[in-house]
């Protein structure tokens, strides 16, 4: 798929837009005023592969913890600011790598000008975060609902506002909890600006429902070449957000994070506990970043042929199974040793 070419900006050490790899973001769910808890969660997310992290900054106490947090983490840190322009100034002075704000909520134009001036001095990008739940009152009156057109008009209005201060280190998001609204809003804005776009379905819901909505919404847009960063919003631990985001990118072959595991859904012919084997394999190779496809099949008769495109795999039977490569059987292995034998081959690959 051909990606839409957008302007290139840098959030800390991470390049965004301009053809750079699509980055996976998340947001901490700790109280930012508790610096140690926030640092610990960010470090967990770094280990899981999160590439950019955002933290909520609800008040001055939280803003004053940003410097300590920034000093202890390796990935770029974005401060999420609403309403109080002074918090944005404190965040910039604390060394954050980016801001997420809706300029229209900061108040008078001179307050926005102060933030933009300081951000420009420090080369700090600003994400204009348009959310269906916080649209300007005049746009809600005009469109009656948070329609895609309302989201786009709000985004363009705020883009023009920042540009009026000669500021163009901009990233844009237009999020709604409704998947169709979000998709249509991004399709329109992608044709009207070349600033990099951050994708997500806001308030997507619990783990399963949130994964479904995010995979559809983000996946459709990415498949159309739209998007430069993504965040999967889940009512779950943020590590799950990172894993799902990576999975969406890998499913579309936009990036590779780990071996691709394919497994059959099982049927009455399956004679082994395939579900447990798959879970154990995922746990044991969680740190592996090799680009290969691994198959776990439940039928020694049909399994290798059904997974012939896999680089390596196993297919189980009642007492023994087979190890195969590219659909061709290599050796017979006792069921108790099938998984260990597969992992040996993965490590050798």
Q: Going across the major beta sheet, what is the strand order?
A: 8-7-6-5-4-3-10-9
Structural class: alpha/beta
User: Quick one: overall form?
Assistant: elongated
Overall mean confidence score, pLDDT: 92
Strand composition percent: 15-25%
Largest sheet: 8 strands, parallel
Query: Cα-atom Rg, whole angstroms?
Result: 23 Å
Portion of residues in helices? 25-40%
Total number of helices:
13
Number of E-type strands: 15
**Poorly predicted runs of 5 or more residues:** none
**End-to-end span in angstroms?**
29 Å
Question: Strand-and-helix sequence, N→C?
Answer: EEEHEHHEHEHEHHEHEHEHEHEHEEEH
Summarize the structure.
The protein is of the alpha/beta class and 349 residues long.
Description:
This protein has 349 residues and is α/β, with parallel strands linked by helices. It has helices at residues 35-48, 60-63, 66-72, 85-93, 109-121, 137-143, 148-163, 179-190, 207-223, 238-251, 274-284, 303-306, 338-348; strands at 9-11, 14-16, 23-27, 52-56, 77-80, 98-101, 126-131, 170-175, 198-199, 229-231, 260-263, 293-297, 312-315, 320-325, 328-334. Strands 8-7-6-5-4-3-10-9 form an 8-stranded parallel sheet. It has a 5-stranded mixed sheet with strand order 11-12-13-14-15. The model has no long low-confidence stretch (mean pLDDT 92).
List keywords for this structure.
349 residues; alpha/beta; eight-stranded parallel beta sheet; five-stranded mixed beta sheet; 15 strands; 40% helix; elongated
How would the blueprint of this fold be written?
Layout: E1 9-11, E2 14-16, E3 23-27, H1 35-48, E4 52-56, H2 60-63, H3 66-72, E5 77-80, H4 85-93, E6 98-101, H5 109-121, E7 126-131, H6 137-143, H7 148-163, E8 170-175, H8 179-190, E9 198-199, H9 207-223, E10 229-231, H10 238-251, E11 260-263, H11 274-284, E12 293-297, H12 303-306, E13 312-315, E14 320-325, E15 328-334, H13 338-348
Parallel strand pairs: 3-4, 3-10, 4-5, 5-6, 6-7, 7-8, 9-10, 11-12, 12-13
Antiparallel strand pairs: 1-2, 13-14, 14-15
């Amino acid at each position: 798929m051909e990606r839409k070419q957008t302007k290139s900006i840098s959030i800390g050490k991470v390049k965004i837009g301009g053809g750079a790899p699509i980055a996976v973001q998340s947001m901490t769910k700790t109280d930012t005023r508790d610096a140690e808890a926030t640092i610990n969660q960010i470090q967990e997310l770094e280990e899981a592969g999160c590439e950019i992290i955002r933290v909520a900054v609800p008040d001055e106490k939280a803003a004053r913890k940003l410097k300590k947090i920034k000093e202890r983490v390796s990935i770029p840190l974005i401060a999420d600011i609403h309403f109080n322009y002074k918090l944005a100034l404190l965040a910039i002075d604390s060394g954050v790598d980016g801001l997420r704000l809706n300029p229209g909520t900061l108040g008078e134009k001179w307050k926005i000008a102060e933030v933009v001036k300081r951000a420009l001095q420090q080369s700090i990008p600003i994400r204009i975060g348009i959310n269906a739940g916080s649209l300007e009152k005049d746009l809600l009156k005009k469109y009656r609902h948070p329609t895609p057109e309302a989201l786009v008009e709000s985004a363009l209005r705020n883009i023009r506002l920042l540009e009026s201060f000669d500021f163009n280190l901009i990233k844009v998001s237009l999020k709604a909890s409704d998947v169709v609204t979000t998709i249509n809003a991004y399709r329109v804005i992608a044709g009207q600006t070349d600033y990099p776009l951050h994708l997500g379905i806001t308030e997507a819901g619990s783990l399963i429902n949130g994964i479904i909505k995010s995979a559809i919404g983000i996946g459709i847009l990415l498949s159309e070449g739209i998007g430069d960063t993504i965040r999967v919003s889940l009512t779950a631990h943020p590590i799950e957000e990172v894993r799902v985001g990576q999975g969406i990118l890998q499913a579309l072959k936009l990036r590779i994070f780990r071996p691709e595991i394919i497994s059959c859904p099982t049927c009455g012919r399956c004679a082994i506990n395939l579900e447990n084997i798959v879970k154990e394999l995922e746990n044991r190779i969680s740190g592996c970043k090799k680009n290969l496809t691994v198959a776990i099949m439940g039928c020694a008769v049909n399994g290798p042929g059904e997974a012939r495109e896999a680089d390596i795999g196993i297919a189980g039977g009642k007492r023994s199974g087979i190890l195969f490569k590219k659909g061709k059987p290599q050796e017979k292995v006792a069921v108790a040793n099938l998984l260990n034998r597969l992992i040996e081959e993965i490590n050798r690959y």
